[in-house]
């Protein structure tokens, strides 16, 4: 049986960083399976890894692409030791001013594809396997100007925590990763509509620190991984203070350009 790690969104940002950090250890893993749409980026990453890697340039919003992936898992007699769902994107701006296709695309990728991928891969996991799902601190409360993205990440967080409870008896552990702004190409897309997240300059962290903590929290079987003190404080605040009051503060910060 071949032990594998599957990483979606592996061509850049946090997905790529997971591959790089895990490549330094995980000697019991036979192959990394790297999934994203950009084959050239995956090829470049593969050449940097000491682990054997399989490049899978797939659009995971396509059911036929996931059928293809599942067929390979069966054919290779693979045991999925870790599934790391990093694929996703966000768009900022007023909901009514956005193109519907972009908003619906977030739901398809951030929610539907993640759910389908997870559902398909669980049967090929065994006791001790891990699932890491990339959510966001945007999951902690509704986000004006980021409405659909925040809603998708709230779904990921809720789904992942419930799934973790369901799988605990099988010895499969789920960690939901909820970083704030991360220094990756994410904002190249998110801010392409003209809106910006001004608070990111105060809370931006590196992909390396997010991934290092996520791997540690997954090892410790923790259901939630939140990087940086400001975002941990935001998490506590979002649970303790009425969201209406937080919205007023956020609106005031926006008016002052903070």
List the main descriptive attributes of the protein structure presented here.
alpha/beta; 10 helices; 7 strands
Strand order of the largest sheet: 3-2-1-4-5-6-7
Provide mean pLDDT, rounded: 91
Radius of gyration: 18 Å
H-E order: EHEHEHEHEHEHHHEHH
- The proportion of residues forming helix, as a percent range, comes to 40-55%
* Structural class by sheet pairing and helices: alpha/beta
Range of strand content: 15-25%
Termini Cα gap: 53 Å
The major β-sheet equals:
7 strands, parallel
> Which spans of ≥5 residues are poorly predicted at pLDDT below 50?
none
- The 3D shape can be described as globular
Instruction: Tally the helices.
Output: 10
Number of strands: 7
General description of the model:
The protein is of the alpha/beta class and 258 residues long. The chain is built from ten helices and seven strands. The protein has a seven-stranded parallel β-sheet, with helices on both faces. 35% of the residues are buried. The model has no long low-confidence stretch (mean pLDDT 91).
In a nutshell, what does this entry contain?
The chain has a seven-stranded parallel beta sheet, sandwiched between helices. The chain is built from ten helices and seven strands. Helices cover 48% and strands 15% of the residues.
